[in-house]
Amino acid sequence: GAVVSQHPSRVICKSGTSVKIECRSLDFQATTMFWYRQFPKKSLMLMATSNEGSKATYEQGVEKDKFLINHASLTLSTLTVTSAHPEDSSFYICSALRPLTSGIINYEQYFGPGTRLTVT
Amino acid sequence: TQLLEQSPQFLSIQEGENLTVYCNSSSVFSSLQWYRQEPGEGPVLLVTVVTGGEVKKLKRLTFQFGDARKDSSLHITAAQTGDTGLYLCAGRVSGQNFVFGPGTRLSVLP
Predict the structure, then answer these.
(1) Contacts for A46 with CB less than 8 Å, ≥ 6 apart
(2) Torsion angle in degrees (nearest 10) through CA of A98, A104, A105, A108
(3) What proportion of chain A, given as a percentage, has pLDDT over 90?
(4) How far apart are CA A11 and CA A7, in angstroms?
């Protein structure tokens, strides 16, 4: 399987500061990565689609100026939570899209291990 | 609006029992993936099914994609405590767009 890493795994920050989370595809190139947020005991909530070399596409209700996404290379996407507030505390997970090596064009998502953000 | 439903939402069984969880939609998917997620970790891809009617086996786990590619099932034989987790299905609708189900939370008791 493919490997996706996230850093940091846990971060605690003070209200009003900014936090950057990195997502890397370690053994494949990903032109597309996704950023999700997950609340306790809930499924994944897609925040945005990160496209290498272009602007991210944000889901409805997600503030693009608050959650800055940069996909500067084929193996790295970053999510910066700006001016963090306690309500931003959550589990943030990224995934990277890898094409399936079959005759039909198809993709698989591989997830990072997640980042637990706590804003005090 | 694409919608994926999963059932049951919660399942608690004894070790050694068999179980089946379901993923259903009114939409057709070009592929469907199953993931298992443990607390505090990211989802881990278990399988991808692409062809209608396809059956894939992964040790004690059997995955089936419906003939019409609108639904899928996951059957676990002789469940073990290590199977405990949140099982998520995700359907690819078009291009690079995926839809996730709400998940089935499985607890396997010793």
Answers:
(1) A34, A35, A36, A59, B100
(2) -30
(3) 74
(4) 9
The pLDDT tens digits of the residues spanning B38-89 come to 989 999 999 999 999 999 999 999 999 999 999 999 999 999 999 999 999 9
- Asked if the Cβ–Cβ distance from B33 to A108 is below 8 Å, we say yes
B43–A113 CB contact, under 8 Å: no
Q: Are B10 and A73 contacting, i.e. CB atoms less than 8 angstroms apart?
A: no
* Cα–Cα dist A86/A36, whole Å: 18
- Report the residue of chain B nearest A112, measured CA to CA: B42
Q: What is the pLDDT of residue B66?
A: 96
CB count within 10 Å of CB A55 equals 12
Residue from B44, B87, B98 whose CB has the most chain A CBs within 10 Å, to mutate = B98
Q: B43 to chain A: which residues are within 8 Å by CB?
A: 44, 93, 111
Q: How much of chain A is in helix, strand and coil states, percent to nearest 5?
A: 0, 55, 45
Report the side by side order of strands in the sheet with A4-7: A4-7, A19-25, A76-81, A67-73
What pLDDT is attached to residue B18? 98
Name the band, by pLDDT with cuts 50, 70 and 90, for residue A105: low
Q: Cα(B97)–Cα(A49) distance, rounded to whole angstroms? A: 9
